[in-house]
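>> received
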Amino acid sequence: MSKDKPRVVILGGGFGGMYAALELERALDRGSNLDVTLVNHDNFFLFTPMLHEVAASDLDITNIVSPIRKLLRRVTFFHGEVEAIDLVQQRVGVSHGHESHCHVLPYDHLVLALGSTTNFFDIPGLAERAFTMKSLSDAIVLRNHLIANLEEADFECGASLRAGLLNFVVAGSGFAGVETVAAMNDFLREAIRFFPHLREDMLRIILVSSGRIILPELGEKLGTYAQRKLIEQRIEIHTTCKVTAVTDHDITLSDGTTVTTNTLVWTAGIKPHALLNTLPCQREKGRVLVNEYLEVPGWPGVWALGDCALVPDRRTGAFHPSTAQHALREGRIAAQNILATVRKGWKKPFVYSTIGLLAPIGKRTGVANILGVNFSGFIAWWLWRTIYLLKLPRFEKKVLVALDWTLDVLFSKDLVHFRTTRPLSPRSAADVKKPA
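>> returned
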């Protein structure tokens, strides 16, 4: 980092952090005198709205990620972990590499965009056993698990275990949960015909909703429509219900149901990054309170956005929702306000209204509300794919995703089970004792 230039450090490479970095990248292209560093634990930007399609073999595992080093040429990228944040001394402790080498990054402006982590609400057994859907590795692990369960259940020796192997539960009826259960249902019902000892009626796919209607963000009418469509696709829905306990072999629901299964996908809660709890600034429910310019009051040069921040909405008196479409625009405004501060110019307040909300619900159907107008069925599904394809970064990835979608119409889904463990070397294999 240069001491002669204002130093900007962005923590987190999700929608908020990445779009802040991209805005500053454009400013650097135009000759701005800044030293900008983005810190992220992955070396790629993940397009999370399409994550469920990776889990369901609709898309190749790398087609929804873009290498950060290809997106940013002038912004410095640090591939590592954020270990500590010192607002008083204006520095960030980071580490990287196999041996966790530690470094200190001083800053003049700090952007908190660390995102969120999964909230398991201290439910017994949940954190150790549940699958989550927040990262690329989550999607790959879930995909492998679904295929492995089908493979194991197909053998005659697995007949007594089939119920546990062919029952699948998704907890959470927001966008992530509904999109995931719909994609899993499509994948499993198509894949099972390739397993000679299995039948489609052996599958039991369950969605657990704490509310009366799924997808509450879209309103009761679309939520009811989505619920009806999922039931038509033979998805079992438990409403006004919660997961209360999880073991290796079953889960217990608050309505008294016990499901024998080794598959619980948890999308029912998030919480802000734990590092925020170490900061001396004002917080509410773990999130940093900011003003309308995305500044952290009392700490000049510190900005927060996305899942890290509570951003006031001047029109409603409440806070903006923590969605991707808000986070990316918050990232742009934060970057513009940093530039305005450096140049002693006027800052912009964050003002934005949700343009639309969309969700695919399986079998090429979807639900959407765009500018207050409701859509459902095939047109909503087509809108979801079209809009998100346009928003996907980099032309190369757009082409690959469009090609994957085209091939998905023509051919069946891939059933390859990826092994991620290293094989034994010849010498190690020879040392393994054979059973007597």
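>> The chain has a mean pLDDT of 93.
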